[in-house]
Specification:
Elements (H helix, E strand, L loop, with lengths): L6 H15 L11 H8 L3 H13 L3 E4 L5 E4 L4 H15 L7 H22 L2 H16 L3 H18 L3 H18 L6 H19 L3 H15 L6
Antiparallel strand pairs: 1-2
Helix pairs in contact: 1-3, 2-3, 4-8, 5-7, 5-8, 5-9, 5-10, 6-7, 6-9, 7-8, 9-10
Length: about 230
């Protein structure tokens, strides 16, 4: 038997659906508490609690003063990415999300990103990739090299021209780095990674989408040995 959700949660869910459906959009002012209470047939305290739930998820915010009120928030990509990182981090390493699933997710996201980058990249993206490779080859220590590897992959995702890819790819990358990167990866392995990056860059620079995707797939498959449960 399913549990009946509290009244405030039901109100929060309905308001959330209005936001997600576009009936309420960023910047829209919500009706006063008394009006919301009458609309949903609940008390003002129930409405107040529902609004707290939505505010905790950054869906709405309240301002004071004569022009104040409760408004639908404009969602910031960085906040979404941070939220995903926290959630994936909590799930990872458990029955919820395994390292293998996270690595597979990288492949699902970044192989198409490399393909798109080959078709859409600008000169500035090529410069960013080249500079990341130069920094990673001259870096000393595991942390520095991985930071520049991350910069290289970020540049590819940016070159894809798909902002949503950046939002969902970066959290997976950060969780893998922070929780599952093996401390015993030899220098020879990183040299191979540098070579892979050169191959990927060459394909993207040539505008060869199939070659870029294949090179990224081979690269990400090879990276699996760098992570441990």
């Amino acid at each position: 038997m399913s549990r009946v959700r509290p009244a405030y949660q039901q109100v929060a869910d309905q308001l959330r659906e209005l936001i997600l459906s576009g009936s309420l959009t960023s910047g829209d002012r919500l009706p006063p508490e008394a009006e919301l209470a009458a609309t949903f047939g609940v008390s003002r305290s129930t409405v107040r609690e529902a609004l707290r739930v939505l505010a905790s998820r950054d869906l709405i915010h309240t301002t004071r003063g004569t022009t104040g009120g409760t408004f639908v928030s404009e969602v910031q990509p960085g906040k979404v990415s941070d939220y995903l990182e926290t959630s994936i981090g909590l799930l990872s390493g458990s029955a919820g999300v395994t390292v293998t699933e996270m690595l597979e997710t990288r492949e699902v996201l970044e192989v198409p990103a490399a393909r798109l980058a080959a078709l859409r990249r600008g000169d500035e993206h090529l410069v960013a990739m080249r500079e990341a490779i130069e920094r990673e080859t001259s870096s000393r220590g595991r942390a520095g090299r991985f930071t520049e590897h991350r910069s290289f992959h970020q540049a590819i995702v940016e070159a894809s021209g798909n902002g949503l890819l950046a939002i969902v790819t970066e959290p997976v990358y950060r969780v893998l780095q922070n929780k599952f990167l093996s401390p015993d990866v030899p220098d020879s392995f990183w040299a191979g990674v540098d070579h892979d990056h050169e191959e990927i860059l060459a394909a993207i620079e040539a505008g060869d989408a199939d070659r870029a995707a294949a090179a990224m797939q081979e690269h990400l498959t090879g990276l699996r040995g760098a992570y441990t449960d």
